[in-house]
Amino acid sequence: MPPRFNGGSTWRDSRGYQRGMKRLRVGIVGAGNNTLARHVPGLRALEGVEIAVLCNRTRESSQRAAVAAGVSQVAADWQAIVRDPGIDAVVIGTWPDNHAEITLAALAAGKHVLTEARMAASLDEAEKMLAASRARPDLVAQIVPAPLSLDFDATIRRLLDDGTLGRLREIAVTQTAATYAEEQTPMAPRLDAQRSGINTLSLGIYYETVRRWLGVDPISVAADAAIFTPERADASGRKVPVTV
Questions:
Q1: Is residue 102 within 8 Å of 90, Cβ to Cβ?
Q2: Helices in 150-244 by DSSP H: which ranges?
Q3: Which of 10, 30, 143, 165 would suit a FRET pair with 171, their CA atoms being 20 to 30 Å apart?
Q4: Under 8 Å between Cβ of 27 and 53
């Protein structure tokens, strides 16, 4: 049977029959490109799920995002979404510096949480989020999974399991992108520790990807990172320090 959710109203399926579960009413906090391109269509494809309300950084950007997402209600701030007794789940699409505060408040209010990666801006925040999720086993608390290899995870696992690749001894990942490698690329939030946290960004997403292939935790994980371009131009053209 499908899961039963607290709150919301009874919904009917495509044939008009009343179903025994509650409609899941979702509030979105932070409606950037990825949220609008990925999460909104994904949620709309789920029967019994309704995107009820949305808020972004400003009232104006919230209204623009609501039009783009086809959402009729805009909240003044994320606190209003968390307080709303008619909202069952919160999708967090903000930068990592807000993930912990919103997640902790939503779980305390009895709402399911789906938050964008990265999990948090610091280890302390991440540990508080984990503890809060474990204190509410009746709620779903999930981080958006690393998408890099979802299309071929099953193939890689099969090649490892059937011995096609031989005995696995070591996995090494080398990664870069234009955001990091090209000196003329403007400053981005992913290069700002205040916005994105103090982690090395790519370690977590590749750890999660490889963990899916192996099915077991590694003995050790190590990462090296460096800042090769100490300053970049921000949106106004002013040079600002790169801190990630």
A1: yes
A2: 153-161, 178-181, 193-196, 202-214
A3: 143
A4: yes
What's 74's DSSP letter? B
**CA 200/CA 184 separation, integer angstroms:** 21
Q: Measured on CA atoms in the order 145, 151, 156, 159, is the torsion positive or negative?
A: positive
- Total residues found in the chain within this entry: 244
Name 144's Cβ contacts closer than 8 Å, sequence gap at least 6. Answer: 39, 114, 115, 116, 117
CA dist 46 → 63, 126, 183 (Å):
24, 29, 42
Which helix (H) or strand (E) covers residue 27, if one does? strand 24-29
Torsion of CA 38, 81, 85, 27, to 10 degrees: -10
Span 39-50, pLDDT tens digits: 999 999 999 999
End-to-end Cα separation, the chain, in angstroms = 46
Is 94 in a helix, a strand, or coil? coil
- Please, which pLDDT band fits residue 21 given cuts at 50, 70 and 90? low
Please choose, from the candidates 207, 213, 206, 218, the residue with its C-alpha nearest in 3D space to the C-alpha of residue 159. Answer: 213
**pLDDT single digits (tens) 200-221:** 657 788 889 999 999 988 888 7
